[in-house]
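Hi there,

I know you've been waiting on this one. I reran it after we fixed the sequence typo, so this is the corrected version. Both the input and the resulting structure follow.
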Amino acid sequence: MGLGCGPPKRWSLNDTYGFIATFFEAQTRTYTYPAASRCVRSQLPSRSFSVSQDANNSSSRVEPPNPKATPPPPPVQRGFHTYFVTHLPSSSLHPDSRIQAGPHHKLPRSAAAPHNAVSGAAPVSPPHLPPNRDLTVVRIPLRSAKHHFGVADSRGSRPYNEDTNQAGTIDMPAFAKRAPISLVRSAMNKTGEGTSADSAYGDPQIFYFGVFDGHGGTQCSDFLRDELHGYIEEAAQEFELKSSLRALRKGKKPDLDSTGSSTRILSDSEAGGQKKLDKLDIKGSESVAAEANIPEINKHGAIQEVDNPDAIEGAPPAPAKASQSKALRLQKELVDEYKKTIGGYFRRFHPPYFHLKQDLDSPEPIVTAEAVLTYAFLRADLDFVAAQARKPDPDDPYVSDNALNLDEVLGKPHHLPPSGQGIGGRTRFKGGSTASVALISTPTPAPFWHPAASSTLLVGHVGDTRILLCETATGLPHPLTSDHRPSTPSESHRLRRFAASFVTDSFGEERIQGLANSRAFGDMGSKRLGVSAEPEITRTELGPAQYSFLVLMSDGVSGTLSDQEIVDIVKEAKTPEQGAKDVVAYATEVSSDGDNATCLVVRLGGWERRSEGGLGSLGTKEIRDYRRNEALDPRRDIR
């Protein structure tokens, strides 16, 4: 029995095109934005489409979706990028005289429109550049810029590497000090030198570097690598933080929605980078030898290690323009959420840089960039811990069967991370991670690695990862972080009220609940005792060519080598990338425990004269050779 009413139709090219169009239309309608929340996605009803075939029409059609179905979540805009954008003259990239000067589009200049925040994208050309300059936008992956940044890692002798790292540009208002008036009253130089592009806020790009050392697994360190910069961006938006580079004209109210640049600024060539390098007061070896903290070899042939010094005293927090009422409310809500969700130590919790009530007589500024960074750290930690508390415990089936979690942390719906992605795996993760992040903001288009550039460095630190600055004039390391150990006086005083006792391990280190760090992300079993993610924040003003480079590392490097040895290894490298590789290779070679090792090296203004100050790189040459010979000694393990 025939089902067709007539002879079968032949498949034509139009039918093929119709089928392809229908297929892509269905794909477009069923596609869910990849950054949408897994939790939200699981709650949404499935949106199914049925494809029917018309007898009189050989092409397929798609039935419209159910109008009552919940629409997909809106796309999440992310301002973080693993590259930085710069502007170069087109002639420097394509020096061809046959190319017509001027814009390469056919639109009149009157059709150009300034960038606004509605578009959501960063401007392709800084607004302070003169209109007659022909520029090319260049996007440079940060990890490929080996002369400016380098990273290396090694798992050592461990089965896998629990360290992670991140580097890129972050989308938040500038927090740098404003440039001197002598640098802002002249027009841009037209010599053809490239300048850094602006962010969506109209400020020079803010660079972000981070190192994360996980323990007990990689879930927490992976979470921080993928999400912490988003929490910082989100906190800046929620606080309604404004740029520190905005100058108000006399008699004019501030334009809170303005994203344009406020002043014209000199380019890096006009600022005289070479002159800044030449004017450096390089110290001799005699004046620096007494300050160098170098390990020594005792009479028994053993190395007398030196303790890592504490962080240098940073600059005081600078007041920031923001919504004070909203900032106070957000800070108070977060502290109350810690009290109700975790309790214990957090019942009398007062984070640094937080103001829980309006106090006009307080000498401290109410809203600062430090407060934003503290809020982001604590928010990320609470989200991670609360997300784990809601998951089944694979080691305790009794707890898993209970509707209400009986662990230290109350299982409650958590605030979704900025990306909208889920947190962790299907079962509870009880480990954690330490973290150190560095944000660099510059007040001028000259990038922070230019010798003439002044920058502001903001460091947030939790745990035993470490960040060092190498001073150009002396060659000495300046630590920006302190190890958060239970044995340190400040941490011991903070925790004694809640921890009944500390346990000393076989290496002589005090531990709390088996943890060597008194501050960390995650570690939900020790949260009530005070193992928090309160960041230690250090603000440092970087003068022109004052420092040579910045080093971020995990404890697999800082626990094996002294600060001076680390910076001396980098001094001998030709590029930051080679310096990071040399540090990790040497630390892995001489390490006795084979811990994971990660190192990031960031070039600063004094890089070209990094080996001239103080003892140069020869101050630790003897001890480094001795360590290498000890590591190669076959009798090392039986001593």
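Quick highlight: The chain has a mean pLDDT of 76.

Best,
R. S.
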